[in-house]
Amino acid sequence: MTTPVVSVSDVKQLVRNVLIRESSITSLVGDRIRTAHIVDPDRTPTSPFLVIERPRLGRSGYEGGFQRIPLDVYVYSTESQAEADKIYDVVYQFLQAKRLVDTTTSGGVRVITAAGYIRQVGSPSDGWNEQIRAWFTIGRWISMTAG
To answer: Is residue 3 part of a domain?
Structure first.
């Protein structure tokens, strides 16, 4: 059996698609759900916003026919730590043990063919990011996907 390889960018986009479809999340952050941090130090992000990113450290791997990819989900707020925590709690409600599947098609073919699920594996932590001058709440998640 060949284990399917799923790109990290597809997995991050699957998670983004789950979150962007939830009105209770978009009512808090709009469409500001990103798959990478902003690297321009002169650009001030509009707050609040979410970032889905692969951690700098962590283990990916294969388990049977599934690919396991760790992801960090950040919520940023320039208003307060309480706002970041509140939004993270809403994200948790809609993302924990969620099926990841994209039904978007182009020419009758699914745009992202990978599918799977995601779950939180570590308690969220919080802090202050001096570079963007915002509070954050971050949680570690694991996605299990197959292509």
So the answer is: no
pTM, rounded to two decimals: 0.86
| β-bridge partners, 120 | 141
φ, ψ for residue 85, nearest 5 deg:
-60, -45
Domain around 108: 8-146
d(CA 82, CA 62): 37
Residue type, position 47, single letter = S
Structural domain contains residue 2: no
- 4-26 pLDDT per residue, tens: 567 888 899 999 999 999 999 99
| Closest to 100 in 3D by CA, of 141, 51, 143, 53 | 143
How many structural domains is the chain composed of?
A: 1
**Strand intervals (E) in 3-65:** 33-34, 49-53, 61-63
- Is 98 a domain residue? yes
